[in-house]
Amino acid sequence: MERIYLDYNASTPVDPAVAAAMQPLLDGHFGNPSSGHWAASPAKAALEQARSEVAATLGAENEEIIFTSGGSEANNLALKGVAFALRGKGNHFITSAVEHPAIVGPCRFLEQQGFKVSVVPVDRFGRIDPDDVERAITPQTILISIMHANNEVGTTQPIAEISRIAHARGILLHTDAAQSVGKIATDVNTLGVDLLTIAGHKVYAPKGVGALYVRRGTPLEPLIHGSDHEGGRRAGTESALLAVALGKACALARDLAPMHRVRALRDQFWQKLQEVFSNRIALNGDPDHRLPNTLNVSFIGQVGAEVLARLDGVAASTGSACHTGHVELSPVLKAMQLPPEVGMGAIRFSLGRGTTQSEIDAVARRLATILARA
Q1: For the chain, how far is it from start to end, CA to CA, in angstroms?
Q2: What is the pTM of this model?
Q3: Domain span at residue 162?
């Protein structure tokens, strides 16, 4: 069977232009960017050019960008960095019930260190009510961390509204934008965020690189201590190679036009599935406030993992896990309070710049065939 990749929210292929941008750093320019001699100069120049590309994509200043090893490190740096920098001011965080484990994990760690974390709920579409965030604020609140877009169902959050609430109370706001960069607008000033996370392998760069935007003046304790790399905020010799990759990927991500085609394909796919399955299928996530590439659907009465296993050659993700006959819904679907008979049939199809009409048609046909026999 033809191999079809519909798991772009999990990881993207490296764009050929990104690979080409990396080549000079592979062929030469091997110097340490922090060294003050001729071998360092090309690497340093490439590193800073990459920083400017990431900053331009976010509407930020160059010095507000910290290169990291990926989205998880950036999230850890944001949460732990603020926690330890501001623990004399307060010990309370607010987050949501649909966050990625890269936020949930640091929050659990901080709770072990004496910090308190409030988790605000979502509605049945996976969307947060800003009023719930406001009600969760206490005099000890120092940071609110709400993802920009959910990786599983694609629902986007009202970050700008939450920002107004946070800043009116003197509270910092972080958003994990790993899924949204390159798909929807991510200007940090429009969103009103103080910290924002990027993951390279979600935006057609290699794995192992990411970035954290930190608004000028935001207090942040380094996660990795050592020399004064990255403005003293992240020790360790910078990888100009990976920074250049992320910089080029972010430069490409500024053009959101490809997402218009991807959205059209996604919507055609959904229409085809509705025509075939009618009331045996349900959409998960907000129908309006949603990433243009994400289609999370439930095949009612089916087990998503079993359907996916029968979709020979199709790479996608399921929102449920089977354990000795028992189906366990993902934390995101649980937070949305999906009925078990609906949630257990969830599959996430996430499209990308390489997705074609023929691939969408082929997957729709395969689904119709295998579920006709169910």
Answers
A1: 20
A2: 0.95
A3: 16-253
